[in-house]
């Protein structure tokens, strides 16, 4: 009988403890250092906003390329601290650009120059991390 009383008391305490708990809402924290995948392999760079589609030739000025290699944008930006580079917003789909965009892993067109972008009219500055401001058109993509 004493064993039955002990089991009943233990069961009663377990049920009481379970009834006394409340549900808690979970908090989600996303670290900025979370790996979001590989950098898009675009022939002329990619936009600095998600989902990081490939940008057409002429969106970025020459200062965005080092030896013909795009220095990155968004979470993959590898430019120097304090960097600000020209972009031509006429080539931004958020501003009405409607032509087809290059696809990831396409190769640049033969003879494409990255040291000087012909007919470039960058009238906006971007910092590579999504920050932007108007002004500074030199027409050649250089500071």
What does this structure look like?
Helix content is 13%, strand content 9%. By secondary structure, it is mostly loops. The chain has a domain at 44-104 and 114-143. The strands form 2 sheets. A 3-stranded antiparallel β-sheet has the order 3-4-5, with no helix packed on it. A two-stranded antiparallel ribbon has the order 1-2. A hairpin with a 2-residue loop joins β1 (65-66) and β2. It starts with a helix and ends in a 9-residue tail after the last strand. The model is unreliable at 15-31 and 137-143 (pLDDT under 50).
Q: Quick one: biggest sheet?
A: 3 strands, antiparallel
Q: Assess the beta-strand content as a share of residues.
A: 5-15%
Structural category is: little secondary structure
Oligomer: single chain
Rg, Å, rounded: 27 Å
Tally of alpha and pi helices = 1
Strand order of the largest sheet: 3-4-5
Calculate the terminal CA-CA distance, rounded to whole Å.
91 Å
Mean pLDDT: 80
Number of strands: 5
Write the H/E string, N to C.
HEEEEE
Query: Percent range for helical residues?
Result: 10-25%
List its traits.
little secondary structure, 1 helix, 5 strands, 143 residues, three-stranded antiparallel sheet, 13% helix, disordered C terminus, 9% strand
């Amino acid at each position: 009988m004493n064993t039955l009383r002990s089991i009943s008391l233990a069961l009663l305490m377990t049920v009481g403890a379970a009834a006394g708990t409340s549900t808690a809402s979970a908090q989600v924290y996303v670290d900025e250092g979370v790996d979001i995948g590989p950098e898009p392999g675009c022939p002329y760079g990619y936009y600095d906003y998600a989902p990081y589609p490939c940008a057409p030739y002429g969106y970025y000025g020459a200062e965005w390329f080092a030896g013909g290699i795009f220095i990155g944008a968004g979470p993959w930006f590898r430019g120097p601290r304090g960097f600000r580079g020209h972009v031509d917003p006429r080539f931004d789909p958020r501003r009405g650009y409607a032509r087809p965009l290059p696809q990831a892993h396409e190769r640049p067109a033969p003879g494409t120059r990255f040291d000087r972008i012909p007919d470039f009219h960058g009238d906006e500055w971007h910092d590579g991390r999504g920050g932007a401001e108007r002004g500074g058109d030199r027409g050649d993509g250089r500071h």
